[in-house]
Amino acid sequence: MPRLRARQLGLTPGDLPTGPRNAISDVDGVRVGHTTLIKGDGPLTPGYGPIRTGVTAILPHPGNVYRAKVRAAVHTLNGYGKAFGFEQVRELGVIESPIALTNTLNVPRVADALIDYAIQQNPDIGITTGSVNVIVGETNDGYLNDLQGRHVQTAHVFSAIEQASNEVAEGNVGAGTGTTCFGWKGGIGTASRVLPIELGSYTLGSLVQTNFGRASDLVIDGVPVGRLITPDRYSDPIERGSIMIVLATDAPLSSRQLDRVVRRSGAALARVGSHYGHGSGDFVIAFSTANQVTHAAPHDAASITITQTALADEVRVIDGLFRAAVESVEEAIINSLCMAHTLTGRDGHVRYALPIAELLAGFGGD
Hints:
Layout: E1 31-39, E2 51-59, E3 68-79, H1 86-92, E4 94-95, E5 99-103, H2 107-121, E6 135-139, H3 154-162, E7 180-181, E8 184-185, E9 188-194, E10 203-212, E11 241-249, H4 255-262, H5 265-271, E12 281-294, H6 315-339, E13 343-344, E14 350-351, H7 356-362
Parallel strand pairs: 5-6, 11-12
Antiparallel strand pairs: 1-2, 2-5, 3-4, 3-12, 7-8, 9-10, 10-11, 13-14
């Protein structure tokens, strides 16, 4: 059976309508690009392969993000991970670079590439203006990939950025190439939600890199399918792995309000059966494309006045965005499973694709 997204299979988690692509790119201006690295087979030779990894870049808008920063927030559900650049976002409430996702040991090299990219776009960085804070998230793909090799290089990061578009590939791509979700092959997933006209018609989209969960715990659209279908080669009794969640919205939210939204992502993980265990790094990044913040150099910062349209903490709108975050993250996780293909990695390790026919049988379908 071909790999299909959740809604193509008749699975419709949540109540809010999706955007036209049901993707994070339904938020106007947001683009996503991947570089996927698959090379070699057989026994692991540390530093050389086999390679099953990649990088995913999320662009908040088509312009220069350093010059036009976006309001943002980050949140740590469980901190067993190597997130890069989060502290300045917590302090200042803005993101000023593309966001990159990759594997655990590749974080410093990807961060270095993002710095190179920012300097290429802004040659004054570190000379007549301040430094740059880049954002990198990760999950560990070492079961299938040569993790020590740190095979994602600067050219791969640049390629992901340059290829970014509003058509978002899912499954075994980019940062999701070698990842595992609930014992099955995981990867990249995305989804979106649109609020009703009376609540402003705001869009909120999510993108996930899934690498978490215990096989028997998997729940899809309220059905405990993990008890019905369990991968043959996965019997780990504890939850391992991580997830990176990126949220984007066109709602004019402050960094404080975005912080409230990102915290609701934990509810989505609970809905699919996770309790973000001890060895899990679960991180959320959110940004608003409204109210971009113009970069201020040290010599002219005192003369910069920032004005913005603020969304009031009106209960129905804020609650709608909370629901949109939970529903879109839940569906993005399901999409990452439904779209991933079986993959053999180093040392003959295999992660099997979630069996669609057995999944649908669990819902009483064909």
